[in-house]
Amino acid sequence: MSRHFDAIVIGAGQAGPSLAGRLTGAGMTVALVERKLFGGTCVNTGCMPTKTLIASAYAAHVARRGADYGVMLDAPLRIDMVRVKARADAVSANARAGVEAWLRGMKGCTVIEGHARFIAPDTIGVGEEHLSAPRIFINVGGRAVVPDLPGIDRIRYLTNTSMLKLDRVPRHLIVIGGSYIGLEFAQMYRRFGAAVTVVEMKPRLVSREDEDVSQAIREILESEGIAVRTSAECIHFAPHAEGVAVGVECTTGDPEIVGTDVLLAVGRRPNTDDLGLEQAGVKTDARGYIQVDDSLTTSTAGIWALGDCNGRGAFTHTAYNDFEIVAANLLDGEQRKVSERILGYALYIDPPLGRVGMTETEARATGRKLLIGRRPMGRVARAVERDETQGFMKVIVDSETKRIVGATILGIGGDEAIHGILDIMNAGVPYHVLQRAMPIHPTVSELIPTMLGGMPTAD
Ligand SMILES: Cc1cc2nc3c(=O)[nH]c(=O)nc-3n(C[C@H](O)[C@H](O)[C@H](O)COP(=O)(O)OP(=O)(O)OC[C@H]3O[C@@H](n4cnc5c(N)ncnc54)[C@H](O)[C@@H]3O)c2cc1C
């Protein structure tokens, strides 16, 4: 059977459904193909369930610290992991059902469940059916990398997806990978009561960030009893009576760690290996990411790639912004470009890391003269009042143009407060505009003008 549409969208993740909404709104017929769960990674196995679990972990953490605030809990704290999981499942299920109902009720949109594969540049196959359209939008996302490490085939391991099915607290969770996803799970499970060890191959955690950020994050995690093993250059696995033995060969410490469960959090790979891209002439890079130009068109005219699969972002907001760019260019006569956007993101450990623009290392590598402001969170009245003073904030300014080129807020409210800086960067105005604003007291944001006012020139 063969059907023709004005457009085909592959994947109901963070870009596809909204794009289907705009295209059908413009009068087009659209086929939206989803092979698994409506809402994709963010809704089902990413942002939503993890941030819901993190909220439970935070509640446990605050309850344990109750006495610091004069709030006495006389009974011992107990985590009911079945209820914790049910809460996360409910949040995901609700959002998933919302996306599905929206798409199924969308006039002009035909929802097809199954795995899409290209047959020709304008045709895909889904099971026995062939669908064709002059415009095809690929929004297939990615999945966890399972690294080819010695012994991996001999052990049971968890990924971010199977981790969410746990309704028990592991006795000792070993997290392989000390980056964004791994650290969120590490702290969350420590707060649920597990012993946790983070094993990272590189010499420091979250190595894309500046060294001072990596170090502060390590201190935050270690202060909660999480063991961190960096420079684990030769990770290998073996079954053990307790669960799993992980050989690490670190420069310091024991060469082997024994745990009950292992979580692999060593990166993501795009879902492009089984998409028949070669039938459509769509090129990928060496890691499988679809190559796109500044307007997200692939190497084949009439085919676009949005979201994680194009390697131009790895976040829900970058996927959604991809949708906005493609829709504006196709339907609103605009000429928006991916290269024009300023990247911001957060790491949701507690306290969170809010980031925007360049790191200090990246800014220094450009060779330009910089002004750098830095303040510990202990200077933030709000943090002191809440007795949550871990972390610091840092801002980097181009001393010639007076524009902010990057910033970091590692501290309570950092994921929200960073938006003040993101907004001023998007406005394209000098840092004085933010420095002279009158912020609200007591907030985390109120220290930003003070920090900007006292910036020494960087060496
Ligand atoms: C544990 C974890 C936590 C995260 N936390 C955050 C966070 O806090 N904030 C944030 O911004 N980002 C977070 N992310 C990243 C975020 O989830 C992704 O960046 C985002 O979901 C990407 O959206 P997407 O639309 O590109 O792809 P996806 O959401 O992955 O959607 C792709 C869809 O395509 C479908 N599909 C794939 N191949 C085919 C095919 N051949 N045929 C039909 N359908 C197909 C898939 O089933 C899926 O539904 C997190 C990710 C993980 C793993």
Protein architecture, described:
The protein contains 14 helices and 23 strands. It has helices at residues 16-25, 40-44, 47-64, 81-104, 160-163, 180-192, 211-223, 277-280, 316-331, 360-365, 381-385, 414-427, 432-435, 447-453; strands at 2-4, 7-10, 30-34, 109-113, 116-120, 123-126, 129-132, 135-138, 142-144, 172-176, 195-199, 227-229, 236-240, 243-247, 256-259, 261-264, 268-270, 303-305, 344-347, 353-357, 370-376, 392-398, 404-410. The strands form six sheets. Strands 4-3-2-8-18 form a five-stranded parallel sheet, with helices on one face. Strand 6 and strand 7 (129-132) form a beta hairpin. The mean pLDDT is 96. The chain binds flavin-adenine dinucleotide. Residues 10-15, 33-37, 40-42, 45-47, 50-51, 115-116, 139-141, 160, 181, 271, 275, 307-308, 314-317, 319, 348 line the site of flavin-adenine dinucleotide.
